[in-house]
Amino acid sequence: MTCTYENIYPVRPDVPLEYEGAVKDALVNHGLKIGDDTVFVDVPRVAFTQVKDADVAELPMDVGDFWGAIKIGSGCYIESGCNPAFHSQAVKLTSVQVNDGIPGQISIGDNVVLQGVAIVAYDKVEIGDDVVFGPLVTIMDSSGHPLRGRGKPGEARKITAAPVKIGKGAWIGTGAMILKGVEIGAGSVIGARSVVYDNIPPNCVAVGNPAQVVKML
Fold it and tell me: Which of 24, 33, 71, 145 is catalytic?
């Protein structure tokens, strides 16, 4: 038997909320830490996910384990609607717990702009202050599965992860993908649709697949 997934959604776009400000209230009530003056435009998809091997399939999911796993700073702008003229989608923030381990941590600094960005944390994704994301960026600190042994016993235990860190004032272009173990230096610019699988130094422009530094700022 393969591993199984269980999800709790503090908020999601297909579940209507009843009043203005309900997004922040629902997130805080589920243990997210959110700073002052952070604005939510429409409803993001926020998920707590537990992936379990077959031998611990009866392990109950405890939402309390995820308390404080996602932190959003002050003055952030989080755009999840269909109003933009360009391609976008709901912002997706997912903290993943493997079996009974520590859930992944997402830490978003102050004055960060997220537009249709997907962040998945098995270990930790850390975003500094004043980072701006174009739409449809994906950040994952894990592949989400082992390279071998898919569907076999112990698959979840074999999942590996490595922290991702994005430095203060970085700009991440639309459609970029940032993979596990990557650190992007402060003030750097990542070009649209770039795939970042290695560290990028501060104050530079990096583009391409794989992303390569083309200019120092």
Answer: 145
